[in-house]
Amino acid sequence: MKVLLYEDDKHDREILKTRINNFLSEHKYKYELDECVSSKMLLDQACVYDFLFMDIELGSENGIDLGLKIRKKHKNCHIIITSNYTKYLIDGYKVKADRYLLKPISQELFDSEMAPVFREYYAENTTIYDEKISRYRIRLNDIVYIDFFDKNSYLVFDNGKKLKTPYPLYYWEEKLSKEYFARCYKSILVNLNYIDTIVKNDIILVNKQKVPVSRFYRKQFEEKWLENIQRML
Asked: Which parts of the sequence belong to the HTH LytTR-type domain (predicted)?
């Protein structure tokens, strides 16, 4: 994860650097944090960064104008606007900023506001690689569920495709134990991000597909599902 910081006030810049480093280090995210020294550097290099923290007031420059230019070049960049004034809040929405942080930015404020943003990014970009099943890296969030039958497990993707693997289900359950997957049935692991609702003995996925949930796994599964919802809020 690459993070870029553009702040012309040295004091505010050091505070924000500390907040970013504290949070990402504590949560053991792998990241690179760089500082931007000019709007030219920002516009030239922003396309290679995943996150941009930018003050809305940059001397004679306007952070919103820069943000709009960046958004046109790099629509997937997560932009976080910082400012001393609430009056610029509406302007922050023009660049579709992920967050608007009002200075002074305490660690508590930073953590509570940014935790869902970083979690969502992590969920969207976590990948696995196993040459036994694919030549390419597989994004975990592309997997809707994992089904085990005939002594093989099958990764079922959001595009409807299936990928056969030689591993038992408990292999995937252990491998993905810290991710957003949970067992709902003796032979099925479900990506919690794809659940719409649970009706009786069926999990209704966002694509309207139904997956069974057994009485044995139901309580633990529902607890993990609710925990996942709360984490994303």
From this structure: 132-227
